Sequence to fold (212 residues):
Amino acid sequence: MMVQAKHPDIHLAELISKGGRPVKLRNLQAIHELCRAQYEAGTRDFSVASIGKLCERAGILTARGLYNAPLADYRALIESWAAYAGPSIPKPVKQLASEDYLMRIDDPAIRAIVQGVIAERNKLKAQLNTLKANTTIVVDRRPLQAPASHGTSAVFTDSERKALSKAVSPEFIESQGWREVDFGEVVNSRGRTVFDPGFASGIRKLLSSWGR
Fold:
């Protein structure tokens, strides 16, 4: 059976009952009220570092002062609030901007194509970071030879090409509340990047090569 943590009010009363200099008793009461305000506001971070910063802002004592041995009673009171409040709620994982806007694309065909482009971009970024980590890099400058009877057009079906064409069309971009700026970058109404530079222009180059 789980034992409920002692209420900080009781802990404060026990600390005050031990007596001490008036400034200490006053500071204990001030820290207690500060922690109570944090608890009532829904905060569950009662680490000594966090409460120390709040104490410093309130002019009670310095944040570093809480770590001094003579102030052990202050730390004990803060720890009492931490036990009473329970563990902090983990913050939700922040979704990447491109993933967030990807889910706003209603057309499933376009969403699937764009998702593939994003995955390929992330793969290339990871490979680039690996290359940067190497001390010596040997670059093969020989041109790649495409198969004689199969070009880039063999990569996607007709429906996929149409979906890609629609994905970079001005009408579609505008319908999503986005706009295309320099170098093929797509941004939202606040100017934040939805797709990195080269996204729209790169797809158009692919579409152009298919038309040859």
